[in-house]
Design brief:
Elements lengths: L2 E5 L2 E4 L4 E8 L7 E7 L6 E7 L2 E4 L7 E6 L4 E6 L8 E8 L13 E2 L3 E6 L1
Parallel strand pairs: 2-11
Antiparallel strand pairs: 1-3, 3-8, 4-5, 4-9, 5-6, 7-8, 9-10, 9-11
């Protein structure tokens, strides 16, 4: 069993930056695919970014602005978010996948964190 805890959310102005953290416990996640998803009010949960070993994947809406990374020693995954826009406002979730199938759908993932709110003011 893997437990995931996100942190780092908050309120930021348009153009600002935030770094989200996802701390894992219970198992080492170095071999897991780790993903970030987000869900805005009234919308479905959507893929943001994923990292599988050293390969990184991004949605088109965040590519070039967000960076996913991992620290094996800390068993933690990060999402650096730059040039934030009001449309980035959502609850951001961290997820872990034991397998090596897809990476950009919610059903690809086995474990989820509780989410952290990111609000970008215009």
């Amino acid at each position: 069993q893997v437990q995931l805890v996100e942190s780092g959310g908050g309120l930021v102005q348009t153009g600002g930056s935030l770094e989200l953290s996802c701390a894992a416990s219970g198992r080492t996640i170095s071999s897991y695919t780790m993903g970030w998803f987000r869900q805005a009010p009234g919308k479905e949960r959507e893929f943001v970014a994923a990292i599988r070993l050293s390969i990184k994947y991004y949605s088109t809406s965040v590519k070039g602005r967000f960076t996913i990374s991992r620290d094996h020693a800390k068993n933690t995954v990060y999402l650096q978010m730059n040039s934030l826009k009001p449309e980035d406002t959502a609850v951001y979730y961290c997820a872990a996948d034991r397998g090596s199938g897809g990476y950009d759908y919610s059903y690809d993932y086995d474990y989820w964190g509780q989410g952290t709110q990111v609000t970008v003011s215009s």
